[in-house]
Amino acid sequence: MSGVWVFKNGVIRLVENPPAGSEKVLVYEPTGEVISSYATLERILTGLGWERYYDDYDLLQFHKSSSIDLISLPKDFSKFKSVHMYDIVVKIPNQFRVRDMN
């Protein structure tokens, strides 16, 4: 199953063929900051109590001791896609939002 999961008005749905040019950005809601690098994301996640795992050299991984959640991201930020952004939004509710770049 390929496509993009879209969250709108409390409903989750899969859009199998998203429109061309619909690039997404991850936004840290409390400050409105667009996540433009892993350094920025790591700073915010650390501030929210998440710890970096160093077990897998191919991934960036974060875990929070009070949770069973594990955030796994590709090591290369250019491969950070909307599926990874939505994973963060689901695991850290009310802190992040995915928006259209336009």
TrEMBL record:
Share an example GO biological-process annotation for this protein. Answer: regulation of flower development
Organism, as annotated: Coptis chinensis
What's the source species' lineage?
Answer: Eukaryota, Viridiplantae, Streptophyta, Embryophyta, Tracheophyta
Highest taxon above the source species: Eukaryota
Concerning its family, UniProt says: Belongs to the FPF1 family.
Name of the protein in its database record: Flowering-promoting factor 1-like protein 1
In terms of InterPro entries, this protein maps to:
FPF1
